[in-house]
Amino acid sequence: MNKYLYPLLLVCLCLALNGFYAPTAGAQQLWSEQKPWEGVPEYYQKWKYPDFQFPSTLGAWTKDRVKVGETLQHLLGDRPERPKQLKVKTLYKKNMNGYTLEKFLIDNEVDGWIPGYIAIPANVKGKVPAVLAMHEHGGSKESVFGFNINARDDASAMLLSRGYAVIAIDSYFNGERRGTGPAGDREKQSGGDQELSQFKINLWFGRSLWGMQLRDEQIALDYLATRPEIDMERLGAQGMSMGSTRAWWLAAIDNRIKAVVGVVCFTRYEELIQQRQLEAHGIYYFVPGMLQHFDTEAVMGMIAPRPFLALTGDSDEGSPISGIRTLEKKLDIVYSLYNKKEQFKSIVYPQTGHVYSDDMKIEMVSWFDKYLK
């Protein structure tokens, strides 16, 4: 069978089994870039935006990389140390079609319990590779696993069918964690904004909401490390939108991630400002002090030489194409320092907006098959 036909048939089967729905290309909200800085008040145009330059030698980057990593940890805020001994509650364990599904809670020892699912393929021998799957803004662990029929970010069925374990948690203001912020169940009511309230309260404690979201994902990795079924040397991270951004940030600060796939949100901040599209991202996304040091190429550069695949539409207002092209050039440089240029790949889909298409899912699974199998 043609090597491209089999994955396509697999996608169709998995999507059918999970009730997947995604808008067709004609139904997408497509966006086009404006002239850079057009309409941006002059004061902001004159600000000094960082343009991080990777050095010309691996030795120099090895030193710079340490400094970038330390700066990232500082920018994420005064995050409490992760639990040394995890407190985990297993709520149930079910035998599903081709895999075992467990629902769990983990105490993050700061502000509540993290709800999540872990799925282990059935009839496998030895340790299996695993993928941390991260939901989009407005999604949940249910959407990642296809339990929500209108999910856009469901990719777990494909991964399970290829022999990967999959783990997913609800991030701070999503899924079962809604109503657990500082104002409790008031944040479930119309007009409530748990995302904003958690952004505010963490600033008061010298932390960032984004840093705390990443801390929870690291706790999920800590839990994976306790599971005897999981090969921690074959661990991937993937997600769409907010999940994509969490995937590449997490890989930047945690070397346990061995391969990354980011779907949409392959974004450089200066170009986002040039295009007047700060509104395309929620408040969770903004890390205080970031542009006093560098733009996103420095974060993504921390992933090198581990495999990193970016899948983006050319008509997505959250990822201006001008920023994508800048990132591609800069990341080619840092991967070339390791003689691993082929381990960074960016695919830009024409006439495509903010979606996780079937073609993108095929590329995602193929990437992990190449580097984690």
Task: Provide a short characterization of the protein structure.
35% of the residues lie in helices and 18% in strands.
Question: What does this molecule look like?
Answer:
Helices cover 35% and strands 18% of the residues. With 373 residues, the protein is of the alpha/beta class. The chain has one domain (5-22, 33-372): 3-Layer(aba) Sandwich (Rossmann fold). Helix 11 (321-337) links the parallel strand 8 and strand 9 (344-349). The chain starts with a helix and ends with a helix.
Estimated helix fraction:
25-40%
Number of strands: 9
CATH topology: Rossmann fold
Please state the structural category.
alpha/beta
Please trace the helix and strand order, writing H or E for each element.
HHHEEEEHHEHHEHEHHEHEH
Major sheet attributes: 9 strands, mixed
- Cα Rg: 20 Å
Oligomer, anyone? single chain
Strand arrangement across the biggest beta sheet: 1-2-3-5-4-6-7-8-9
- What is the straight-line distance between the termini? 20 Å
The general outline is globular
Number of H- or I-type helical stretches: 12
Strand fraction equals: 15-25%
Spell out the CATH superfamily.
Alpha/Beta hydrolase fold, catalytic domain
* Mean pLDDT over the full residue set: 92
The poorly predicted ranges are 1-26
